[in-house]
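Why run this: before we spend reagent on co-expression, it is cheaper to look at a predicted model of the complex and decide which construct boundaries make sense. The entries below are exactly what would go into the expression plan.
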Amino acid sequence: MAVRELKQRKGFLLFSLAVALGPWIIRSNYMTSVMILIAIYGVLSLGMELLMGQTGLFSLAHPTWFGLGAYVSGIAATRGILPPMASIVAAGGFAAVVAFVIGAPVLRLKGFYLACATFAIIIVAQVAAAQWTGLTGGPEGLVGIPALRIAGYTLTSDLQFYYLSWFFCLVCYLFCSNLAASRVGRALRALRDSELASSSVGIHVSYYKLQVFVLTATMAAVAGGIFCFYLRFVVPDSFGFPLLLELLMMTIMGGLGDLRGALVGTFSVIWLKEALNAYLRKGFPSISSEVDVVFFGLLIIVVLIFMPKGLVGGMDQVATFLRREIGRER
Amino acid sequence: MTFISQIIQYAISGITSGSIYAIVGICWSTVFLISGVLNFATGEFVMLGGMLTWFFETSGMDLGLAAVLSIVLTCIVAMLVERLVIRPIKHATEMVYMLVTIAAASVIKGLVLITCGTETHTIPPVFSSKSINIFGATVTPQALFVVGVLAVLMVGLHLFLNHTLFGKALRASSVNRTGAELFGINVGRFRLFCFALAGGMGALAGIIITPIAFTGYNVGLLASLKGLVVAIVGGWEIRNTVVAGLVLGLLEGFFAGFVSTGWGDALSLGFMIVFLIVQTLDLGMRKIRMPGHGC
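The model came back. Tokens follow.
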């Protein structure tokens, strides 16, 4: 039994192994720091994928949950209310409560009205983070966040954060893929395809929607907590529209409707961004980092027009083609 | 300043920005009603209008000519967005449209940023800036001009939509797209026209507000969202949108005057969220039907 389960999870295990050995094969601080970002954003895009791809909920408020987690854990740790590790957990719990309170009324909205309302939530949250100077430090950001300590062990190097963030990311992936394969996942996909039909076969539509909304918000908030202890400072600008654009890019590029797509998309988008920064900046030093926005915008348009299934869809097509041509049927 | 003059002052600034919201809201609803596209690039048309006029004006062009040229250019940009971004999409849903227009908006914004930089700019007002005094409150002629433009646009749109064949066909295709297509109306061309119309009106709004509120590469997003708020609250109808725009502008004006300027943007967007949620509640009142709201 166990062997069969391991065989089914072959890809996941190989990937985990690669992640675990990665920093020992390629010893580079730069690579490690980029991979940390990939793990953290990977959790976010997994959440987006679960919401948009599996459940069909176009909730765009993901940057807000991420920011909420970062701010809550940052504030709790800076003011000495909670020890750092507990503050990350508390941030997840707090975000779950807030997402429940906001989600219960907002998820009554359908289609693009939901998207508009959640888009508005991002802006409101950003204004709040910038204006509530006493609590959040205002537009200059929250500084003086202490180092993360787990069980009396202080995390200082990037490598330690690498393992922490990838551990969390892989746990989230495993959880989400199990969820998607379970009865709940089938219910979510059913209500994505038709709410009316799925409610008529006994799926409690609003209940499932709220559950998945709260789940993804919690995941994003915990990722935000890790992010805040990694960077050691938080500014409102990092949880706004540009982050939303990047997250959309990751989810679309990877391919909607496939959880692997979230990680593939995150990986490719962040490395593309790094490559863009490295090579374009060298050629045109006058161009600021804002060129990313143009590039990502163009890429979203191109991917949606020419490759609506994303990278994973494309890879699957290639795989099917090869299998058929080479003649190895499964 | 007395209390009365303060109130009048805030009301005037509220009505001025409310008129702009109303125009942007009309831009949203023209595009949405005809084509079902939620065009998040609407605010970028406003930004383009202001920035292009500033650009031509500083390079030594006459203000009127610069304004006309930038309106035309923005129309062209809007049509390009329709041709290059909206039309090639195969499996079109409202969400895909929304994503691509968000992407298009950020492309436009980024290109303006790269070419023009991050500074805010302004252009001289249309009339000489001798302000009028009402009960101690000052009104600039530009503010009156903004309200006047809104009125002219409203009357013009009303005449166009109700008293010309083309306008009637537009209305018909907004009511029933398939039906209009069956009657030989080229809906694709209408969509192109509506994008151009939205681009032109958005650019006009951007030009007339620039002497009052300045322009910069990043004014588009908030203009977009405010317009979206009033279009949704107004139920995608021109007259209601104008009312909603003015009410929202007044609310914001008083809020900014008496409470705080920083939270103003949160106010209007929070207002939209609450409005949308209240609409989903069945309070036993007349159900307001909203297009695309599903069952």
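DSSP finds 15 helices and two strands in chain A. The mean pLDDT of chain A is 84. Bring this page to Monday's planning discussion.
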